[in-house]
Amino acid sequence: MITISSLTLQRGTKVLFDQASLTIFAKQKVGLVGVNGCGKSSLFALLLGKLHPDSGDVFIQTGITIAHLAQEVPNTNISALEYVMQGDAEVADLLQKIKQAEAEQDHNAISQLHNRLYEIGGYNLEARASRILNGLGFSKSEHSNAVNAFSGGWRMRLNLTQVLLSRADFLLLDEPTNYLDMDAIVWLERWLQNYSGTLLLISHDREFLDHVVEKIAYAHNQTIDLYTGNYSSFEEQRAEKLAQERSLYEKQQAKIEHLTKYVDRFRAKATKARQAQSRLKMLEKMERVTITQLDSPFSFKFAEPQNCSPPLLQFDQVDFSYDDHQVLQQVNFSLNPQDRIGVLGINGAGKSTFMKLLAGNLQPSAGSNFVNKDLKIGYFAQHQVDQLNLQESSIFHLMQLDPKIREQQARSFLGGFGFQGDMAFGKIENFSGGEKARLVLALLIWQKPNLLLLDEPTNHLDLDMREALAFALQDYSGALVLVAHDRYLLKATVDEFYLVNDKKVAKFNGDLDDYQKWILERRKQDFSDDVVQLKSKNNISTPKPKQTPTENKLLRQLETRLEKLNQEKERLAIQLNDQTIYQPENRQLLEECLQKTALIEGEIKTVEEKWLTLI
Questions:
Q1: Among 319, 63, 394, CA closest to 197
Q2: Phi and psi (nearest 5°) for 299?
Q3: DSSP per-residue string spanning 218-284
């Protein structure tokens, strides 16, 4: 259990929390939400002991192991597999102690250490690590690649793999989906759903929160409120609370107005001075009702774009290659005004390449493409964020884009994207990743495009900005092509999907639920193999239909196989309990026994899970 009581936490001159309290019980999965800068990451640092409260108490139950998603990866040349296996600290420690015990020929210690290694599944560590790496999108061949050969986003996936491999009681995950594509997010969702420990999760992905957490801790106004339910439930409860607060607020304002008028009217009159003073004290003591700031701080919309006759653009038998590597082949695609398309595909399939071809940033290696003369493209991609002039301001960028715009008009427009007051004149080098992305979107919207090409526009955007973007896109009357791992944004804004797969781009006949099924089919992997602890077999309560004769036969075969495997496991356990096996001359026999034990353990799991699906 984790308890935060009467917490006051200040960073610099800013008070993040004032008398805030929060309790998280064992095995609860809690989402931590709130506007950027409200103190979410500072709360994580507090739980990790990197910060200390200015006042109040933080209690973490003795013996709880905590794992958190580190934001930096060391520049090391060890393999990805070696690096992530370090995530299981106890196994790493045991292996080191075994080496030491072997050097000292301490056979008793060797025996005890190997028994503990066996108990915690240490001999299966490499297999577990490989499965998690596969789940997060690494190919088998990449497991042996050096850590420093991966890009920043893929290194973050390695850090996430370490956390999932740790067998920790309590996971602290800060934006784990930031560098994941949709298939990796779906995999992670399933893993966390099966995780039997405690979870505190910061995420700006509402669908991910909806599918993973059972409570929401809402950080606002220097306090933390705990809501039961997922994120969608939290939004409903919060809206209802806001309505109640507004009603109380309006009543209180009427009372304040009445008391103020009385004080102003009679405080100078001797006969009424005492009553006026009494009313004044009443005003001073009154606990003011404050309206929760539910409304988004962002407010913007797309202007009506110029009309354009169909098609906007068209590809006929288009190929594209990077040097000798072919990415897309024989692509036929036509885009008309008001089309709203979501582009799906696994990581590396060629989605961004397809978007660059649509934007005209790349030219086909073969085939023909048509572009309407009246087409005006608004293209959002990460490289545009990187190309901002860090020494200039947001208002400078807008006025450079449109020299005729008046300063007040520019300030008003940028204010809708959260660049208010002095912030509109501040240097971009001080902006966060989310603020830079908001600025690029603002500049794009100002240009009134009749085709929007958005490649992962929600990276680094908080929940309020994602919501505002979804609303604006719903009202946008031009054509839209969207690549996003944010399923809420896709569901809210597009009408049809195209799938990039096996170098082809084709219409996908289905919705996002169908796509998730397609992803899971591709993997052909039971997610329960990858969780730290399997859910109890007793939790399976849905009655199954009566088995067919074929299923009955398979059940008997599985039961026979299980019996033989368990007998072999017992035989090996007897050998491993014999002290003589740990003597130097028996080292090869020990290794054979341990390897066989690990293989049998894995097969028992597989057979048991097949058996469970049939009973």
A1: 63
A2: -150, 110
A3: EEETTEEEEEES-HHHHHHHHHHHHHHHHHHHHHHHHHHHHHHHHHHHHTT-TTTHHHHHHHHHHHH
Number of helices and strands in the chain (H, E): 20, 18
Q: How far apart are CA 308 and CA 376, in angstroms?
A: 9
Residue 528: which pLDDT band, with cuts at 50, 70 and 90? Answer: very low
Cis peptide leading into 449, omega within 30 of 0?
no
Return the HEC string of 118-146. Answer: HHCCHHHHHHHHHHHHHHCCCCHHHHHCE
Helical ranges in 319-378 per DSSP H: 351-359
Buried b / exposed e over 433-451, threshold 16 CB at 10 Å, is ebbbbbbbbbbbbbeebbb
Q: Which pLDDT tens digit goes with each residue over 146-173?
A: 999 998 889 999 999 999 999 999 999 9
Whether the CB-CB separation of 417 and 440 falls below 8 Å is answered with no
* 589-600 residue pLDDT tens: 887 887 788 778
Tell me the pairing of strands 451-455 and 325-335. Answer: unpaired
Are the C-beta atoms of 218 and 267 separated by less than 8 Å? no
Helix (H, G, I), strand (E, B) or coil at 341: strand
Report residue 246's pLDDT band, with 50, 70 and 90 as the boundaries.
confident
